[in-house]
Amino acid sequence: MREIDVSVITDTIEKMCISANVHLPKDMQKGIKSCRACEDGPIAQTILDQIIQNFEVADTEQVPICQDTGMACIFLEVGQEVHFTGGSLYDAVHEGVRRGYTKGYLRKSVEADPIRRGNTGDNTPAMITTDIVPGDKVKITVAPKGFGSENMSALRMFKPSAGLQGIKDFILETVEKAGPNPCPPIVVGVGIGGNFDHVALLAKKALLRPVDSHNEDPFYAQLEDEMLEKINQLGIGPQGFGGRTTAVGVNIETLPTHIAGMPCAVNISCHVTRHESEVI
Amino acid sequence: MERHIDLPLTEEIAKTLHMGDNVYLNGVIYTARDAAHERMTDQLAEGIPIPFDTTDATIYYVGPTPARPGTVIGSAGPTTAGRMDKWAPQMISLGARGMIGKGARSKEVIEAMKKYHGVYFGAIGGAGALLAKCIVDCELIAYEDLGPEAIRKLTVKDFPVTVLIDSEGNNLYEQGRKEYLEARDKE
């Protein structure tokens, strides 16, 4: 049994919230730059240049890349040999978010009630997902998620007879409907299988995977490539002004599912797709 | 076409702006998002005036990050304009003919733009660090309790925008994509 004081969790999350909002992950930087290299639309090239300039300015001047510093999505992979001391783990996570968003001059974008609204003033609560894994380590991933793209995401409960074509059509339809709203070039996180609640989380987790990585299953790796190609034939382009680069990547994750169903969730993310991980 | 415009956005200037023009804005603009729009229109219905002069005004749909000490403003890129469609026709009818945002607009908004010579400008979504450099002054003027959604009076210098929809209703999202696809398919 390894003891970890929850204050370590707070300190780590505070630091990661600030860093994740200021430094675009290397895989995204590389992805956007390689899209720029093969972009054939003249307006699109200019837009991509400005997007690149923006994340470089944010990086050097320590300014948030985007003003929507998001809801703080926190993923914890907790080793089952770990014993947390010094207080509540989730309180420690929220405290880390509170401190990070305050000290880092990040935007507080969380409303206390979905209908009656009212800003909580410190960007808490965080959206926490916990997985228990073997070992005595804790892996923390901080993924600030903006809502321009979150609002364009979709979930559908397919019948198995819809098949692979049904899934392909749904992904394309969701990207088409999103159009310019989610700040293209986008990253498309797709979850297939599981059930109603797990498929949505699967799509979100797909966005945590580096944009230049592939699903380990060659069938889904090929589907990722095929869907990226099809999305980039739509012509929506950077910012929706027309061009080749509508998406930087498509990441697909799957789960076994029920004999009667084939759930699919498409979680769209913008060109400022942020995620940072650390192991304690 | 490249244009440098001094605000306020008069009807005369608005009529000369065309879809796709790259425009650099200079002068005063006001920030307002969902919560501010809702409160402005609710209060207007109760007879309380809008907290700024809407005549020829330009509204920037933005909720910036807080300014670090020694800076004017934090990151300040546009939010999705479609969420303001519910209130925009009324704001346009009150003279606030300029809008800065990103994303598609409703038929009702475009009709109001045609009627009152409105212009919908696009700033690059997600380029908040870069756009903040063109904001030289920021003053919170109303609804402080709304936090990032409070109304701020911004002074901008060569603030880069593109005309997404002009006062005749021409729409860059439709045209730009169409032209790209036509050029691509010709090859």
Multimeric state: heterodimer
Q: Do you know the CATH topology of chain B?
A: fumarase
Report the sheet-strand fraction of chain A: 15-25%
The helix-strand sequence of chain B is: EHEHEHEHEHEEH
Output the number of helix runs of chain A. Answer: 8
Q: Give the terminus-to-terminus CA distance of chain A.
A: 14 Å
Structural write-up:
The complex is a heterodimer of chains A (about 280) and B (about 190). Chain A is about 40% helix and about 25% strand. Chain B has a single domain, classed as fumarase, CATH 3.20.130.10. Chain B has six helices and seven strands. Chain B has a five-stranded mixed beta barrel with strand order 2-3-4-5-7. Chain B is globular, with a radius of gyration of 16 Å. The mean pLDDT of chain B is about 95. Chains A and B meet through α3 of A and α5 and α6 of B.
What's the helix and strand layout?
The complex is a heterodimer of chains A (280) and B (187).
Chain A: E1 2-5, H1 6-22, H2 26-38, H3 42-61, E2 71-79, E3 82-85, H4 89-103, E4 127-133, E5 138-145, H5 147-150, E6 154-158, H6 163-178, E7 186-194, H7 196-206, H8 218-231, E8 247-257, E9 262-269, E10 276-279
Parallel strand pairs in A: 1-3, 2-4, 7-8
Antiparallel strand pairs in A: 2-5, 5-10, 6-9, 7-9
Helix pairs in contact in A: 1-4, 2-3
Chain B: E1 2-6, H1 11-16, E2 22-31, H2 34-45, E3 58-60, H3 88-93, E4 98-101, H4 107-116, E5 119-122, H5 128-132, E6 135-142, E7 151-165, H6 172-186
Parallel strand pairs in B: 1-2, 2-3, 3-4, 4-5
Antiparallel strand pairs in B: 2-7, 5-7, 6-7
